[in-house]
Amino acid sequence: MNKWFHSWRAALRIARRDAWRSKGRSFLVLAMIALPIIGVSAADLTLRSAELSTTEQLERGIGAADGRLSNPDMGGEAVFQSPDAQRYEPARVLKENEPYPEGSMELRKAAPKDARLLPDTVGRAKLETAHGLLNTEVRELKATDPMAEGIMDLTEGRFPAQEGEVAATTAFLKKSGLKVGGKLTARHLDREYRITGAYELPSSLETDQINALPGAFIKPLNEALKKADLGTDYGSTTYLVSVEGGFTWNKVKETNARGGIVESRAVALSPPADSEVPLYQKPGFQKYGMDGPGFQAEELTALATVVSLALLEICLLAGPAFAVGARRSRRQLGLVGANGGERSHIRSIVLAGGLVIGAAAAVIGTTLGVLLSIALQGTFEEMMGARFGALDARPLELLGIALLAVFTGTMAALVPAVTSSRQSVLSSLTGRRGIRRSSRVLPVIGLIAAALGATIALAGSMMFESIVIVGAGAIIAELGIVALTPALVGLFGRLGGFLPLSPRLALRDAVRNRGRTAPAVAAVLAAVAGTVAVATYAASDEAQQKAAYNAQAPHGSVIVTDENGRDVPAIRTAVQRSVPVEVRADVDRLVVGKSTCGMYDEDPACGRYTLVIPQAKRCPLYSDGNVPNGEDPAARFTVEQRRALAKDWRCKGEQGPYQGEVVVADEKLLKVLDIKNPAAEQALKSGKAITFKKQHIGDGGTVDIKVITDIKAADKALETGKEEPGTVKSFPVHEVTGEVNAWGFQTVLPPSALKSAGAMKAVPYGSYVLTDGKASDKDLQKLEDELSRISTSTSLTVEKGYESDTSIVLVALAAFAALITIGAAGIATGLSQADAEADLKTLAAVGAPPRVRRTLSGFQCGVVATMGVVLGTAAGVLPAIGLLLTERREEQSWYEDALNGGYEMPAPYVPIIMPWETLGALLVVVPLGAVLLAALMTRSRGALARRETT
690: which strand partners? Predict the structure, then answer.
């Protein structure tokens, strides 16, 4: 034991001295190991600090209260809830097909008798800003109450103290252009509020919100909206609760029995066992989540794979540096052997070099990582949109990351250590390299691994349809190619006879010194293979998305819509004023009842309409005639019949962007949509409807629309299997036949057709605008500004065709691969120059011109880059094709299942597209760049050196 300790102590001292003497090489290796450690340690501290403890989560959610009481909207019926209040169900077991209970309740009555309640109401309002209108969240909560402490963090001024005051989040003030001390008004509200302070929500920094005292904002706003015959929103109210002794689980269950649910501090800090939770014992209830062992195992497997490949990349880059360091110290190592040192001592000295640099990288990397995380915490918080909790540095995790650096440095020095220990003392002392033969076992292992990995990836894509299996096979194949790299480098050497002097010397040097060439080539191979795989998949995915892109209207069209019909005329005027309009087609929607009614509005003053489809034209798969209650109509048919019906014209669904059945518009809509049909235009001009869907044509050759004014009676009739009561209105119609792209429109009624439609009328909905093709970004920005001043619910769409951001991804991937390639090739070149300094001096001595040194350096770098890029490109195509084939089989399976169920969907299209521009950059531009860069950074003349004594 004592002997082992002293030998390693000496080895560490020698390694430390050598590292200090060769500062450039040591710094290079240290940087390669430390950079990932900086990133990992910074990420660890950042993520741990971003993870809130239970106490911090409670403080941001319920402040200093004991709990938050909420209404489950089940009419006051007893409920069962989970301890975190995220899931709840009625306490009683519902009968088959019985709907969930619904209804409001007096929430205060569900609270414990001795509880103190603080109301917390959240609604929305359209607030007037310096730029227009902003749909903003309004929160009525007395923020100065001790129970609310921690929910809002005040950053400037103070919270409101009286009814005419509000505070606002910093995000709202930034977007609105308002400031603390300014005035705030809401649309349709004839009173002003003074902004007294700014605050932020720690877990939601981007939320636009204002804070007012309870009853100070939402109630007067809704009274004003009600007077204007507009929709009201009184928001939802919960209560912060303070209870003597805390809100225990027993008190939570008592509250559940009275119809309320509770998020409790005491329960969150000390959750009950599952056996004590009535919800979990309820028949038929199932717990679910994404934190099961299977999900965790998948996450850990992916993380382990990424970490392993990163470590392999570092070892491949750092290994040659230790090899050259050992070779430059061969005389010193020979003296150790000459003085009785064993091979284990020589191995210890070289390994100690990796240990020393790894330890230095561990200390520097973890320290800089922690400092980087602290320095960038504010930036990370803004990016994530939430404040971090307390700084959570976990020593064991940081120690593990540091040990990872030590392990990486030691493993990088392992192969050079074994190689150095096998050299004879005589060859080490004389500086002779001797005859070095490549391993014959490693290429065989690599070939087997490459073939096995390719087989596994192919089987995963063609048989098992598993992305995990494809990925595992691709990794095994890539590792096999890495193991084959020394043999492949030797094969490249046969091309030397066809090259001029400088590249021939560079190639010969690379082949002779495979110990440093192969790891650098393998490092480039790994980086390029990953880049090619991702680039191929991204290019193929882009082609798939482009084929599946569904345009909203002809190219260059502008579409504006708004559910609030009152604002649409002003919106149309803004469009006409802001963009160069060639044709504007105004589109209205059908409404039964008040103008403010929606299609599925539950207001008693609102109704609805439905198209009457003749029985013969109804899809048998969806028709419920002669089918027992609760049975799927499609179940009556065989699989073959369902597949045939899926392609039947009666069962085809609409694939266009507009999914409404009936709209109101004139013939201008056809011109905007580029539908050239004179008969259809003439029909609309004459007051006749047109339809693109022959199912809508009734038996009398008209479009029949049933107007339903009593929604409750209609719903009751549907529940009992009867026909909905209502009045049928018929409109003469012209059918548009042939292959026509109607952009999702089905039936169009002209405005004149609704003059005698009774309770059904047209309400402005929006416009489809055909521009002259000269609408600039400036025009569109002007239009957006105009629309923001009119309404906050306006939808603006400019049809620009398919726009891809994949090109940015491909450029980033190519840049990453180029960086790794040039870096690895540069390292190999620098090491080869240091290793072959004697050969360079010999060239100079025999009269070689100074530029030979520069060109030789450039070609040495280019040889490594070219070999790595070529092999990496070949290795990277395999996983991409495997993943795409897997995706193609999955989509084909979904398509067949849909047809078997009677649903027609577009046939799957998963192409395999090669990113030729990226491949061209990697195969041509990157190696040429490496050659030029290395040549420019190399001195033409070597430095004078003292002659070594032998």
Answer: 734, 748
